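Input (structure):
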């Protein structure tokens, strides 16, 4: 069901490992032309374009693109009590964890009368995207909204695709979660058109442009986020979900199988990768997979994901090689199920989130661990982080010098400005002492 990649006995460079990591065939660049046309359409025709795109892609024409206050309140009141309680617990844990991501203001006295203040300012307005399609994601509402609120963002617009099943409205569970968090600006729009609307605004909807857009989505959403980057900030170009599990002979095969399947059920392009130094353990997982897959609800989706080029069982000589492979892969979710996880952790430097031990499955982080589940995919964890309060913060420096403090460094400024052939820079300092 899963292909095997045997790296034992091989000396591999960093470039070799990058070439070997399993990836989905999905390519953000492949949708550029189609996405550019959709973005241009929204910029030119506003809400009419959004309604036409909903009819084309979501098979429904929304009666209203902006959700009413009444619909939000009604959706919150109708939330299943168990779901509401779970959301409230998730909100509390994510809020407390996100608060730790907001740096305190720092003041550095570089000399008497010379100080630099480091402060972190939130952006004023953000657009948060919550996907639809194969599943419903109230948990993504929590992850996006709470991080923005903790950062101090004052204006939040949320977009999610219209649902044919609900007459073109946003899914009621999404609406209920938004209302629970106090978000009252919610739009039934999806895909590239939604990203365009958030980035550029839509006059006839009263939708003002945002400064940052976050949230996962499909290929069109990821491509659109790339297209508007620079007009607005983005979190990342999130692609299909992925899990990499490092396991040794002490791990539980049934746990590993369950966790591989848990991510594979998201999408046919989802990546599930097991890296192990035990051939016997790998064989145990292979033997257990077919029955476990057959018993799961979305077995056809899971089969496609596990059989795809993005999934594999990787055999390595030892856990050091496992860590090197994982760092080259840069997984969205990394599970560590080995006898001595604490010894391995210092070797792991590239992952969206790391889940340690037998009782910390990725599913926990997807919902209620307190960590954020909006994470970099497709190897972006090698250079990018997941969503957090810091996503909505901009570090700023405030510089304040007294006359005496400026006088102390005036000659240094003059020397450097002359060296750079920019004498007016030095003159601007000298002018204060004539």
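Output (sequence):
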């Amino acid at each position: 069901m899963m292909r095997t990649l045997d790296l034992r006995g091989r000396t591999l460079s960093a470039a070799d490992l990058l070439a070997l990591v399993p990836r989905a065939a999905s390519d953000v660049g492949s949708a550029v032309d189609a996405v550019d046309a959709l973005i241009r359409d929204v910029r030119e025709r506003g809400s009419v374009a959004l309604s036409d795109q909903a009819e084309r892609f979501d098979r429904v024409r929304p009666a209203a693109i902006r959700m009413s206050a009444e619909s939000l309140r009604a959706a919150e009141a109708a939330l299943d009590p168990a779901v509401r309680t779970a959301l409230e617990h998730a909100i509390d844990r994510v809020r407390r964890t996100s608060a730790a991501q907001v740096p305190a203001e720092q003041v550095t006295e570089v000399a008497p009368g010379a100080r630099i203040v480091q402060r972190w300012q939130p952006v004023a307005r953000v657009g948060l995207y919550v996907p639809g399609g194969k599943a419903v994601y109230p948990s993504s509402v929590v992850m996006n909204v709470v991080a923005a609120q903790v950062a101090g963002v004052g204006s939040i617009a949320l977009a999610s695709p219209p649902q044919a099943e609900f007459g073109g409205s946003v899914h009621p569970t999404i609406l209920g979660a938004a209302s629970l968090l106090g978000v009252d600006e919610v739009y039934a729009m999806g895909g590239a058109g939604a990203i365009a609307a958030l980035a550029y605004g839509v006059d006839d909807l009263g939708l003002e442009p945002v400064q940052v857009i976050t949230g996962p989505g499909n290929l069109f959403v990821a491509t659109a986020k790339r297209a508007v980057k620079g007009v607005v900030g983005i979190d990342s170009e999130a692609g299909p979900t992925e899990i990499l599990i490092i396991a040794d002979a002490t791990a539980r095969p049934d746990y590993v199988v369950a966790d591989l399947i848990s991510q594979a059920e998201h999408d046919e392009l989802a990546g599930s990768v097991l890296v192990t130094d035990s051939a016997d353990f790998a064989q145990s997982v292979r033997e257990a997979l077919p029955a476990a897959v057959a018993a799961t609800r979305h077995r056809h989706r899971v089969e496609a994901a596990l059989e795809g080029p993005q999934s594999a069982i990787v055999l390595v000589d030892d856990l050091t090689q496992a860590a090197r492979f994982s760092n080259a892969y840069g997984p969205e979710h990394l599970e560590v199920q080995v006898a001595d996880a604490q010894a391995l952790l210092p070797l792991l430097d590239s992952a969206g989130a790391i889940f340690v031990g037998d009782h910390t499955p990725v599913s926990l982080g997807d919902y209620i661990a307190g960590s954020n589940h909006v994470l970099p995919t497709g190897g972006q964890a090698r250079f990018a982080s997941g969503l957090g309060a810091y996503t909505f913060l901009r570090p700023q420096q405030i510089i304040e010098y007294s006359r005496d403090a400026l006088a102390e460094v005036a000659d240094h400024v003059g020397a450097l400005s002359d060296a750079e052939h920019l004498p007016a820079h030095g003159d601007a300092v000298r002018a204060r002492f004539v």
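Notes: DSSP finds 17 helices and 14 strands in the chain. The chain has a mean pLDDT of 96.
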